[in-house]
Design a protein that fits this description.
With 504 residues, the protein is an alpha+beta fold. It folds into 5 domains: 80 residues, no CATH class; 181 residues, Barwin-like endoglucanases (Beta Barrel), CATH 2.40.40.20; 44 residues; 61 residues, OB fold (Dihydrolipoamide Acetyltransferase, E2P) (Beta Barrel), CATH 2.40.50; 72 residues, no CATH class. It has 16 helices and 21 strands. The strands form 5 sheets. The protein has a 6-stranded mixed sheet with strand order 7-10-6-11-8-9, covered by helices on one side. Strands 1, 2, 3, 4 and 5 form a 5-stranded mixed sheet that branches. A hairpin with a 2-residue loop joins strand 19 and strand 20. Helix 13 packs across helix 14. The radius of gyration is 27 Å and the shape is globular. Its EC number is 2.7.7.48. GO terms for molecular function: RNA binding; RNA-directed RNA polymerase activity. Belongs to the RdRP family. It catalyses: RNA(n) + a ribonucleoside 5'-triphosphate = RNA(n+1) + diphosphate.
């Protein structure tokens, strides 16, 4: 399971980046690949030895191939969003690598950030003593005392050579056998969001020498995750806070004083039992009914029962409400649940966040947010927007399901509480509404002031003059927004096909 990560030959990567020193120090790229005959791909490309072409797994594809009968072009656009490693990890490698002749620069040392509050709370929750954490936070403001960093996650770029349940830290050094690393990904709130994982530091028996040489040649800046033995099992990276490899950064800590406490709290992961643990986790996670709260009648009273597990017969489910236990079939459960009509309120934090929902049968019950997030995301997003939760922790994903109507006209303007506002009409609406002028598209405002003869020298509109200049310089972003408007997809397809016929 590659979970959002593909491969790129070293030669192609060098050519793309100009072949200089920067190219030689690059592990991989975060890219967007656009090709009408294949689709749109998003994720990381990591260097791999022994290949001659870029390899894109299905997990990287976010949009399927074009449905147009005539394709506008047969080429491929490869957009590079970021190159790894980061500049801070390049500086850290100077301390880690005993062969490095350079020390970190003074400016990079001054830019080092303290250990974040979220990570600190997780470490404390894992049993790290307060005095030990305080001492480490003081020491980690210098590279020499810093035993943590954020590394980009990459898939195994060998022929399955890394043992399951292990990782390889590029540029971390080899030769030390018994080393482990604490890994998690933000946002993290509980010990279950992290794992302590063995680091591969000697060539595995089944790995080709060519692959091992390639791994050892990569600079510091990436954590390479092994693949599971069973393709149906949850991958190691997914088991860490439900992560993937399309650009996620992982907090990695190898401090020898804190690791014993962390391993006791989250448990060490060994190669022997990794497959069984992950397969069991996957089985539970794939059953959306486990953990669901359903209306249950006990002694003539309605209460909330919890779907605890699947019964031993493999068909029914065990429902518990305090000391009461009963079996229910899948059909009975789903029949009782019906469909979610509305989200009423919410409670809890992190993984324990729940929402109270109104079902189609008129019943109300508390459900785990993460369970219903995949089932009714738009209904939850509407609730989040009504309660102004879109910018709060744990609700940001709802923004992907909120599509505001486009503003098509500016009708009037006024000054309200010292703020310039414009009366705007949204697509599909009959009545306009007042909106802050600075939140409206610059092109619409420019058309409005020109149409009504409003001078941009007016102190209330003077700011618009600067915005118009910025918009002219940033013309490509505007064109990109227009072209990506799905409402005009058919028009753009015809336009592109006409251009293709005219210039082919």
């Amino acid at each position: 399971m590659l979970t959002g990560c593909g491969f790129i030959p070293s030669s192609i990567l060098q050519d793309l980046l100009g072949g200089g020193q920067f190219a030689k120090e690059t592990i991989g790229l975060r890219v967007r690949v656009v090709c009408p005959t294949l689709g749109i791909y998003k994720g990381n490309l990591v260097q791999r030895a022994g290949i001659t072409k870029i390899q894109l797994p299905g997990s990287m594809r976010k949009v399927s191939e074009s449905m147009a009968k005539k394709k506008a072009f047969e080429g491929v656009f490869l957009l590079i969003n970021e190159a790894y490693p980061s500049s801070s990890n390049k500086m850290m490698e100077r301390c880690i690598n005993p062969n490095s002749r350079k020390a970190p620069t003074k400016s990079s040392t001054a830019d080092l950030k303290e250990l974040g509050e979220m990570i600190s709370k997780v470490l404390l929750a894992c049993g790290v003593p307060d005095d030990l954490l305080i001492k480490y936070k003081k020491n980690c403001t210098e590279f020499q005392g810093r035993h943590h960093t954020f590394l980009v996650g990459m898939c195994d770029c060998t022929a399955g050579g890394l043992p399951p349940g292990t990782v390889f830290l590029t540029g971390f050094g080899v030769g030390s056998v018994h080393r482990k690393v604490f890994i998690t990904r933000s946002p993290c709130t509980e010990p279950q969001d992290a794992k302590v994982i063995p680091i591969v530091s000697e060539k595995p028996t089944d790995m080709l020498q060519e692959d091992w040489n390639h791994l050892c040649s990569l600079p510091f800046g990436a954590v390479v995750f092994s693949s599971p033995q069973d393709d149906k099992a949850m991958s190691l990276v997914e088991s860490i806070n439900n992560s993937d490899l399309d650009g996620d950064l992982f907090f990695c800590l190898w401090d020898p004083c804190m690791l014993p406490f962390l391993e006791d709290a989250v448990g060490g992961l060994s190669v022997a039992h990794e497959k069984d643990i992950l397969a069991e986790d996957k089985k539970i996670e794939d059953d959306p009914l486990i953990g669901a709260i359903v209306p249950l009648e006990v002694n003539g009273k309605l209460c909330n029962g919890v779907v605890e597990r699947k019964a031993d017969d493999g068909e029914n489910y065990v429902i518990k409400c305090n000391s009461h236990t009963e079996l229910m079939s899948y059909e009975a459960l789903t029949s009782d649940l019906c469909e979610v009509v509305k989200v009423l309120t919410h409670r809890g934090k992190g993984r324990h966040r729940e929402i109270e929902v109104l079902w189609g049968n008129g019943e109300k019950s508390w459900q785990c947010l993460s369970t219903l997030q995949k089932e009714v995301p738009t209904i939850i997003a509407e609730y989040a927007m009504e309660r102004n939760l879109l910018s709060t922790n744990g609700w940001g994903w709802c923004k992907d399901y909120i599509r505001e109507a486009e503003i098509v006209d500016v009708c009037d303007h006024r000054v309200f509480c010292s703020t310039l506002q414009v009366h705007v009409l949204h697509d599909g609406d009959l009545e306009p509404e007042w909106k802050d002028a600075k939140d409206v598209d610059t092109d619409l405002l420019q058309d409005y002031v020109e149409k009504h003869g409003i001078s941009l020298k007016d102190r209330r509109w003077k700011w618009l003059q600067n915005e118009i200049k910025k918009a002219k310089k940033n013309w490509f972003a505007k064109a990109q927004d227009r072209v990506s408007d799905v409402k005009r997809m058919a028009e753009y397809s015809r336009f592109v096909e006409s251009l293709h016929r005219a210039f082919k």
